[in-house]
Amino acid sequence: MTVGGPSDRRLFPLIMLCVSAMAVVQIIVAFAHHSREHILALDFRAYYTAGLMVREGAGPSLYDLDSQFEYQRRIIPEMQDPAGLLCFLEPPVAALPVAAIASLPLREAYLIWSAFNLLWLLLLTRVITKALSPVPSHGRFRALAMCLTFLPAWVALAHGQISFILATGLLAAWLALRSGKDLRAGLWLSLLFLKPHLAIVPALLLLRRGRGRAFVGLVLGGAAIAAASLAVTGWGGLVDYPTVLLNAVTWGDAYSVHPQATFTWRGLMQSLFETDRAAPVLPYWLGGAAVALWLLFRRCDSVWGTDSPRFAFEWSLLTATLLFTSPHTNYHDLTLLLVPGVLVFAGVHPRVPTGWNGRILTALPHIGYLTCCAPLLMLAGASWWRVPIVLFELLAVVVLATTQSPKVIAASGKLPEGARFP
């Protein structure tokens, strides 16, 4: 089936069906019995608190935990223990759009924020369909259906998280780099500064590959985010932000940070050692992260900005490594796995890799999709349901780092006649 075939006409109804279903879920959450309690249990509570602080001129104390606690108690007066604070850990600029709606009651503000996220999901869907353009239409329909029914994406929307923005930045940056629009790629990639630890490795990778214009775009976008944040908090508040991020690593099981519940290599180590303290697992966490980063930088030596399937696999490896090595990855953050899922779909068409690792690579999007349904294991009383997801991230890093061979894929991105993936 060729690109542009009959299945293409089914994409719009598929998108509308899934987005409408998501909107219905959000409305049910907002208007169901005990809806206030439901919304207060979501991450939106932290955004609403930050928006309220900014709206009332308390931006300079945005990262003072006592101030956050006092403002959050106005929303949930029954909260007495400061350790129960749902802490706002995004940059100050992330509080600005919520500040515009913080004067509204909680339910109305939540619905408006959900509508904003749904609009961003439509943008992400457009970027996904563009990245899937080399895929035959039947495969493109299946890939898009998997993206729109991916459980972490639904959870991200329910919580009011910004995961769609981050996924869009990563995928749109890959498209721009592939087209040689490096400055635009850097600007898209700067959206990762909304979770600053995610921007460090891509910045180093751009420098290693000599993509100066992309690095400049990343810096310019980061500077714009910093300037907007400075306007919100002033110098003092802005300096407090990295301090809070560093301290969060050592908080243990407090302020909505649950180290054993994270979907990262660190979280797996915390669970194995049965501790929420960072010190006992630090050598193992840093050692595993160092190995994953070494695999990433060792593999990313191709000519970026071409239609090479290898470039798609390397960008997939970058995203998987960011999640695997992150100090803190919640379930909604797994929405970023849409990026390697889409790029692997795009990279294996029209040629399918062979060999054991090539076959695993081809199946990787489906394995990830099913593995991320692991929360359903909770219904069976399984306490270990997070482990398969971390092991999948490890599998993705290993397979993406070992599948393609520089002797097979030329700099042009095309396979020599008769050659195949190892």
Explain how this protein is built:
There is one protein chain. The protein contains 18 helices and no strands. Helix 16 runs antiparallel to helix 17. The N terminus and C terminus are likely disordered. By secondary structure, the chain is mostly helical. It is globular.
Short description:
By secondary structure, this protein is mostly helical.
Largest sheet: none
Instruction: Give the helix proportion (percent range).
Output: 55-70%
What's the order of the H and E elements? HHHHHHHHHHHHHHHHHH
What structural class should be given to the helix and strand makeup?
mainly alpha
Unreliable segments (pLDDT under 50, ≥5 consecutive)?
1-7, 405-422
Percent of sequence in beta strands = under 5%
Number of helices: 18
Distance between the termini: 27 Å
Q: What would the average pLDDT be, to the nearest integer?
A: 87
